[in-house]
Every structure is written in C-alpha cells, then in structure tokens.
Amino acid sequence: KQEVTQIPAALSVPEGENLVLNCSFTDSAIYNLQWFRQDPGKGLTSLLLIQSSQREQTSGRLNASLDKSSGRSTLYIAASQPGDSATYLCAVGDDQGAQKLVFGQGTRLTINP
Amino acid sequence: DTGVSQDPRHKITKRGQNVTFRCDPISEHNRLYWYRQTLGQGPEFLTYFQNEAQLEKSRLLSDRFSAERPKGSFSTLEIQRTEQGDSAMYLCASSFVIGVPRITNEQFFGPGTRLTVL
Fold first, then answer.
1. B61-74: pLDDT as tens digits
2. Which of B105, B110, B111 sits opposite A93 (nearest CB)?
3. CA–CA separation, A56 and A53 (whole Å)
C-alpha cells in the first residue's frame, strides 16, 4: 500500500527566504506526482505535475523535482512571499487504472512579513 | 468559470438524515474522482468514474454511500443515514485521460462540500 509522508508538518519562515518542502513515498511504481496548495477551508489548487518519466517541473518561483528510485520529491519555493502562506500537499498517482491520488498530510507554511 | 464546481459548499445535517452532493466537472473531462478530507489530513480516495462507468470504489465507501454519473456529465454523491464520523470535506476532481498514449491525467479539484453531522 502506497504511503506518502511530508516533512516538516509545519514551517514558518521570514519573507524573502528560499525554502524546500519534502515528500517521500514508499512505492516507486507511480504514474505521476502532483503538488497542490490548499488555503484554509478551500479546495486544492494544482501547482505542478511531474510525470513519472520526468525529473523536474518549474512554474514561476516554484520548482518541483522527482526521484522515483529513492521515492522522493521536493518543492522549492524561491523568494517566499506572505501570499505563499498555505498548506502544501504532495500526491502520487498510482500506476494502475484509476491513477487515483494518494496524498501526504501536508506541510503548513507560514511566511512572516 | 470553467473549473470544477460543487454544490452545496456547506451542509449541516442531523445524524440519520440523507444528504446529496453534486459535482460538475470541467466539460471535456472524461474522468471524475471523489475524495474525502478530514481535518488536518490529506484527502483520501473514495471512487472514480470513467465517463458514466464507476470503475473503482475504496473500502472507505460503505454501503451507506452511493455515487452516480448519469450520461458521463455531472456526478452526485449520496450519504444515507449520516453519522457523525461522516463529517468531512468532500472533494471532487476531474481529468482527461485517453487510451494511447496516456497523457498526464492532471487532476483539477473543486472547492469542496463541507459536511457537518450533528
């Protein structure tokens, strides 16, 4: 059974810092990996998707990497801003028919002005 | 707005009542997923549809839960005889998948329906 772990559970940093969020998964047979942002009481916003054959994806100040063999992904946020404060969720899509997402518990990020 | 929509956004009900939620996916998407998220946890998969066919159900989906997707368009999730343990955010997601080659299957989520069972 696939298990996804995100470390740390919470992170508080001053504005302007670069930061890294970590995600690990136990089964390397994945179809893809998605990083999401969730604001309190809201739905999920897709940030980046990495296919299993890819190593990284970039969007603006965000860069996500994937190392399937070691079961790890990182989300790098450059020049953090208070508006980046949210919970960040990592999810792996299974390699079977459903490609359903298995989520970590998230990292709650606070950027202090 | 061409994103995934869900209705209602909030539902408060008494234990034992039936509730029904609706999800309208992105119009050209052929896959629709339901997930459940409890406080402080990541979402958990409940079930999914490919067009109108329900192809997989999680063990979390007890016999009190039923989902439909008539004509492969919108979907409904019904919970009968609600229990306090059903209180959660119910999230719907949609994606587009073709057979060969399989494309990315990026899932797009709606705003969710927050259910509170008193």
1. 889 999 999 988 99
2. B105
3. 10
